[in-house]
Amino acid sequence: MEITVVDVPERGRFEIRDGEQVVGLASYHVEGDVMTLPHTEVDPARGGRGLGTQLVAGVLTA
């Protein structure tokens, strides 16, 4: 399992991927120098593995 967090600005979201498969996302919008994350989700079949935490950590370090 190779987990990566990727910014997809044309869709207004970050995706967390296992290889090429999207397993979660965090939608965002930016106003000035403030980024808001109104929605995050992870595939329920992959819940409890820390993917949501990894996703948000990836967003914060982007």
Rg, Å, rounded: 11 Å
Element-level helix/strand string: EEEEH
Which shape, going by the Cα principal axes?
globular
How many H/I helices? 1
- Going by helix content, strand content and strand pairing, the class is alpha+beta
* Strand count: 4
Looking at CATH, the homologous superfamily is Gcn5-related N-acetyltransferase (GNAT)
> What is the CATH class designation?
Alpha Beta
Q: Give the strand content.
A: over 45%
Largest sheet: 4 strands, antiparallel
Based on the coordinates given, report the CATH architecture: 3-Layer(aba) Sandwich
Q: What does the average pLDDT come to?
A: 97
The CATH topology is Aminopeptidase
Number of self-contained structural domains: 1
Would you summarize the structure shown here?
Helices cover 16% and strands 52% of the residues. It is built from 1 helix and 4 strands.
List the helices and strands and how they pair.
Elements: E1 3-8, E2 13-18, E3 21-31, E4 34-42, H1 51-60
What does this entry look like structurally?
With 62 residues, the protein is α+β, with helices and mostly antiparallel strands. It has one domain (3-60): 3-Layer(aba) Sandwich (Aminopeptidase), CATH 3.40.630. It is 16% helix and 52% strand. The chain has 1 helix and 4 strands, in the order ββββα. It has one helix at residues 51-60, and strands at residues 3-8, 13-18, 21-31, 34-42. Strands 1-2-3-4 form a 4-stranded antiparallel β-sheet, with helices on one face. Strand 2 (13-18) and strand 3 form a beta hairpin. The model has no long low-confidence stretch (mean pLDDT 97). Pfam families: Acetyltransf_CG (PF14542). It comes from Modestobacter versicolor. GO terms for molecular function: transferase activity. This is GNAT family N-acetyltransferase. Keywords: Transferase.
